[in-house]
Amino acid sequence: MSRDIATLQLSPWQVGGANVRDGVPERYLTLHGAVSAWSSRFPGSCHWLSDTTCGDERWGCDMAMGRFESHVREELRVASDEVIEDAVTYADPLVLRGLMFQLTGDEEVARARLDTASLTARGVVGGEDVPLLQRKAAEFLKAYRDAGATEISIGDEERLPTSLRLSSTFELADEDMGLYLEELSLDPWARGLHWQTPPPQERLEAFKVIVIGGGLGGLNAAIQLKRSGIPFTVIEKNSDVGGTWFENRYPGCRVDTQSRSYTNLFGVDYSYPYPYCPASENERYFHWIADRFELRDDILFDTEVRSATWDETTSEWQVSIDGPDGERVLRANGVITAVGFLNRPKMPDIEGMSDFAGPCFHSARWPDDLDLKGKRFAVIGTGASGYQLIPELALDAEHVVILQRTPQWMMPTPGYRTPYPAQVNWLDRNLPFYTNFMRFRAAVSIRFLSDFSEIDPDFDDPDACSEANKFMRDASLAFLERKLGDPELVRRMTPPHPYLSARPLAVDSEYSVLDVLKADNVTLVTDGIRRITKTGIETVTGDHVEVDVIVYATGFHATDYLFPMTIMGRGGVTLEKTWAADGARAYLGCMVPGFPNLWMVYGPNTNGGMHPAGFHEVVGRYALECMEHLITDDQRAIEVTEAAYWRYNHLLDERNARKVWSDPRAHNYYWTEFGRSAVMCPFYPWEIWHFLRHPSFDDLAVR
Ligand code: NAP
């Protein structure tokens, strides 16, 4: 790739100033689009971030003097017509419709008819005008190639809302367009802090933040802090970054939301070898982040936070850590926790567990050196982890015994385990802004959860909570029947709970747990477990299965937020005590009264509303804007008021009561012993985005 360097003159205000406060005005897009072209298209240029400081002298200078690099797509310049024509047949037609309209303004493209109700074998929509879109895209690429394939602009920004609608199967309201434009990631730093006024250097340097956790949420917080010039340290209990993807290494472990939305805005041009990346690829992304943004020196690895205590006299957190240098206390003005809620393995309590003579471990503690060949495995637990693990084990192990208490609903997903065809990655590299539109499509797709999970009080059905919910159940049941044939096996694999009342699992349409149930080396046991013996498992019917290895795919302490750390706020009150009455809660999923300057990434009731990376980003931005307020106004502490906390939680509980996971037939790990879900978020993505777009200072006490 060759690069031309041009100079882009922007004032700091144009880049990071007040224009971003007013929703998404035109100027925002114009200017941020330009910065985007500079920084997202050319990963190398992102180094400006780590160089950027926000002191009086240097405030914005890196941006103002920033170089605009444009590059030539050498690969496209030498591509034959045949290569181009072949590649476009692998493009998502919905993306082609929006993107081609955006780049060209061609009304014929906008009128192209697609069948959004059905998917082809490649997992994309079909329709009579697919060939037209492919021809238009090929013509565009050939002309672009012949013109030199240099950097080009996104085209008329006025067209963007229409283009996004042409790429979407959902309605996109005007008032939510700010969310969708962010998801498009033309500005990879849209979810960072844009200082309203230059912060006084001495106050900026004196404000220290501790981020707990070096996974998806923690690394994003770290990058955004670094970019804002706010000093920080990340505390990570593992020896490397990655969080859940560092820990979960069982065979078959992979993400079950699309990878393009499981990465950050600034990762839009990251090369995704799979639509749903396996754990090792997810890890590779986290290494890319840590290296690209030079974060490793900011992270204390192999170090665990034991407690955090608010010091009333200094308005600081005293964070007690335990690492290679022993125990010590760090002081910080703010703390961002990004520890995940599916992080602490939950082992069952079954008689005789310690008697078993062979290897036994939780699915999140898979041993590196375990050879599957010739071994008989028992897998206890059939949630997402168990169902992912079983078909991979069945490929190599001598025998797999599945101990299933409750089956889970599955979503057949074409190509779930398959790498992208080379043509898709070619499009990623050579069709301008293809990655942006692909990311937008992936990010907004979580919306389906909201649509299919709403309880219709007038819908009376033994198995479902609404017409739409029943439609999903029927589709999933048809998949079971098609795969299994045998009605008795279908009965044993049919979940008793409504669809989406627990998390359904994305599985490969061609190879999943359903494809191995009838294999000679797989046995499904649905009788309960009586005890574990030295050599195997005894069921309640008295049968004994002999195995060599037991895997506990028994889930996590999902509702014990921030467990096992002790977090002590004002007046020596712990979070545990605050939540003792009815379980974990938070304001906007991130703040709790009595715990100033503490923000939780993916805290209580944040699951399911927005895609995880996006939720992390909007909470991260919210936290940084709170910090901006403290630093700029020379204040010490910010916390949510009791009134706002309860107002939000009453709304949340009322909305959660209308969701299928509150249905009496539901069975899931979302519920606490207090009879409420501490996990699920009932709001639509755009509601969450509006809630968290900026701090509402009426809800916050600042002193
Ligand atoms: P889980 O959904 O909580 O499933 C735990 C399983 O263990 C259930 O089948 C449960 O049965 C069973 N179990 C627990 N105690 C038991 C006992 N004493 N005896 C027999 N069975 C017992 O845990 P998970 O599968 O690890 O998944 C948790 C979450 O992690 C998922 O929902 C998902 O959010 C995330 N995850 C995501 C991915 C991905 O992205 N691809 C992969 C894995 C996990 P009952 O249902 O009867 O209680």
Walk me through this protein's architecture.
This protein is of the alpha/beta class and about 700 residues long. The chain contains 26 helices and 25 strands. The strands form eight sheets. Strands 7-6-5-11-23 form a five-stranded parallel β-sheet, with helices on one face. The protein has a five-stranded parallel β-sheet with strand order 12-21-13-14-17, with helices on one face. Strands 10-9-8-22 form a four-stranded mixed β-sheet, with no helix packed on it. Helix 13 (about 215-230) packs parallel to helix 24 (about 610-630). The protein is globular. It binds NADP nicotinamide-adenine-dinucleotide phosphate. NADP nicotinamide-adenine-dinucleotide phosphate binds next to helix 16.
Architecture blueprint of SSEs:
Layout: E1 3-7, H1 12-16, H2 26-39, H3 47-51, H4 61-64, E2 67-71, H5 74-77, H6 81-88, H7 93-104, H8 107-110, E3 115-119, E4 125-126, H9 130-146, H10 160-166, H11 177-184, H12 201-206, E5 209-212, H13 216-228, E6 232-235, H14 244-247, H15 279-292, E7 299-300, E8 304-311, E9 316-323, E10 326-332, E11 334-337, E12 360-362, E13 376-380, H16 384-396, E14 399-403, E15 410-413, H17 422-430, H18 434-444, H19 447-453, H20 467-484, H21 487-493, E16 505-508, H22 513-516, E17 522-525, E18 529-532, E19 536-539, E20 544-546, E21 549-552, E22 566-568, H23 575-578, E23 598-600, H24 612-632, E24 638-640, H25 642-656, H26 685-692, E25 700-702
Parallel strand pairs: 5-6, 5-11, 6-7, 8-22, 11-23, 12-21, 13-14, 13-21, 14-17, 15-16
Antiparallel strand pairs: 1-2, 3-4, 8-9, 9-10, 18-19, 19-20, 24-25
The structure holds NADP nicotinamide-adenine-dinucleotide phosphate.
NADP nicotinamide-adenine-dinucleotide phosphate binds at residues 254-256, 342, 348, 350, 380-386, 388, 405-406, 503, 529, 553-556, 669.
